[in-house]
Specification:
Helix 2 runs parallel beside helix 9 and helix 8 runs antiparallel to helix 9. The protein has eleven helices and no strands. It has one domain. The protein is mostly helical and 276 residues long. 77% of the residues lie in helices and 0% in strands.
């Protein structure tokens, strides 16, 4: 899902390179138009498929939680030996009952079969509920976004080799802004929305519209961040102090957004089944 951010970075970098070729504005606009006409439909389709998978995942977790909350060894388990009347199909000899053996083990481990049922209903179900109340862990997103460092490594090396230390210093603040702040926030907001609208719709048309809505939401978030970045550079410039301030402001804003928008997606107790 960080693909949109990476594609955006490539487009921005490519458009910037065209300024070296003489008629930079016209070539840059043409490049944006051509690549944008290809990337936009592809992004809508890709994010719609991602949204579909995420919503299906959260619905599956809801079903698991519901099953665990009412779990009973007697009612919800089946032993193969009982289905064949405890007879070996090949020899016809009587075979021991697996259920009896397992229930004796449960008594040794938990004190009683009912205690095991309560453990599943109360403690194990709470563990699975965490899967419905959280987005992708921040550390996972940061690790997945580490290729951004390699993407900009060539540019940074070029600046150092040409002794353009100011440009290299600007990248020191620019890269963490997207890698550690904007990218994780972008992804967590998208996953949180998919969790909120996870309920299965009645028709295929409604399902497509919901998935497209999630995709457009992801695009809106990206362009909002890109607009804020452009506004900052146009207002305060692109010198090193401005880039450092931008990085600090963005990290603060993203931290506040994650706390304000991702935390409320925790459902109330007993309300995890359907979503919206």
């Amino acid at each position: 899902m960080l693909g949109a951010s990476v594609v955006g970075a490539i487009l921005r970098q490519s458009a910037g390179v065209t300024t070296i070729l003489g008629d930079g504005q016209r070539l840059g606009f043409l490049l944006w138009a051509v690549l944008g006409s290809i990337a936009l439909p592809g992004s809508l389709i890709t994010f719609s498929l991602v949204s579909r998978s995420l919503r299906a995942h959260f619905r599956a977790v809801d079903r698991i939680v519901k099953q665990l909350e009412t779990f009973s060894v007697k009612d919800d388990t089946v032993s193969h030996c009982c289905t064949v009347n405890h007879l070996d199909r090949q020899t016809g000899k009587k075979i021991p009952c697996d259920r009896v053996i397992l229930e004796k083990c449960l008594v040794l481990w938990f004190g009683s079969v009912q205690a095991f049922n309560e453990f599943i209903q109360n403690e194990l179900s709470e563990v699975f509920k965490k899967l419905t109340t959280s987005t992708v862990p921040y550390t996972w997103i940061v690790a997945a976004g580490s290729p951004l460092l390699w993407f900009y490594a060539g540019t940074a090396t070029y600046h150092l080799r040409t002794e353009n230390y100011t440009a290299a210093a600007r990248m020191v603040f620019y890269i963490p802004s997207w890698w550690l702040a904007i990218g994780p926030t972008y992804l967590q907001l998208f996953v949180c929305l998919a969790r909120r609208v996870r309920r299965q719709r009645q028709s295929a048309c409604q399902e497509v519209l919901v998935n497209l809505g999630c995709s457009m939401y992801g695009g809106f978030i990206y362009f909002a961040f890109a607009f804020f970045e452009g506004f900052w550079y146009a207002t305060f410039g692109t010198d090193v102090p401005s880039m450092a301030a931008f990085s600090m402001v963005v990290m603060t804003i993203c931290a506040l957004i994650r706390c304000a928008c991702c935390m409320p997606c925790r459902p109330q107790h007993g309300a995890t089944e359907h979503g919206r």
